[in-house]
Amino acid sequence: MRRPGVLITGASGEIGHGLIEKLAEDGATTIVTLDVRALEPSLGRMVHREVTGSITDNAALDRILAEFDIDHVYHLAAYLSTRSEFTPVTAHKVNVEGTMNLLEFAQKQSESHGRPVVFLYPSSIAAYGLPDLETKAKAGKVREEEYNTPSTMYGCNKLYCELLGRYYARHYKQLAAEALSGKVDFRAVRFPGLISAVTVPSGGTSDYAPEMIHAAARGEAYACFVRPDTRIPFMAMPDGVEALLTLADAPRAKLTKTAYNLGAFNPSAEEVRQLVLRSFRGASLTYDVDVKRQGIVDTWPADVDDSAARAEWGFAAKYDFDRAFSEYLIPTIRGRYAR
Ligand code: SER
Q: To test ligand 1's pocket by mutation, which of 14, 15, 79, 80 has the most ligand atoms within 8 angstroms of CB?
């Protein structure tokens, strides 16, 4: 008998960290993880099976298939946007072929246990590509179907994988209707920049906000790599994790979209800097613009319309800009670096 459980790929990353802690809270969920990096020991103790390997390695996925009866896949593993621009071919391999492997895995799982596998996919505001700053200023809250012309390899990968997920969900649903069991119940969110108090991102382009906060807390000088007026949406990590879990539990019949926008707050880089300076007096935060990374965030929307997520599955961010700092980031970060 295979043991029922959930699979988290990219589990040692920022979202995985928060997701494992939340899923492990009641002790009732069997958590299986797949990541090229080992989990921190404190997280490793919360999971039932930690597989160290790549999502491009089908043998690793087959071993999990043979041992576990997976009903939820949280497919978090990816090369982020800045890193992907340095190694676009590898990024495509990991981000697209890796996702394809996981969709096949989910399909095989659902065929073997006869129930749909709920497949949670974190897409991104990088799936958008606004042509210039004037359009970005005028666009306001961008809707899911607008400006689907990403400028980065990562953005192209995310947008295409949303479509791949939609293909799997529809194609195999059709086959299921023709009496073949199994299907992939694909659900995606387009995350804004995520800010965690316990981990620092690596390889993303929204990293300037979390990097400013963590550097100030550590008493290190930091030069922000985008202009002061740069504006994109952000979200505190607990809201991001909660969104994934809420979407996972939403009744299928209520969902009309493949991927949902999520919003929480959208400060300019200078507004982030000012709040960090108020929270950590004497912090040294300057600007040193990286033209390539600036070019990436300039194509991302300044704000997103998340009314579909609110209406269809009850998404509501708990933390606005001020609360994210006063009730989550500052107290948690202070505690962390004090230790
Ligand atoms: N935060 C990610 C990045 O910057 C976007 O999804 O790459």
A: 80
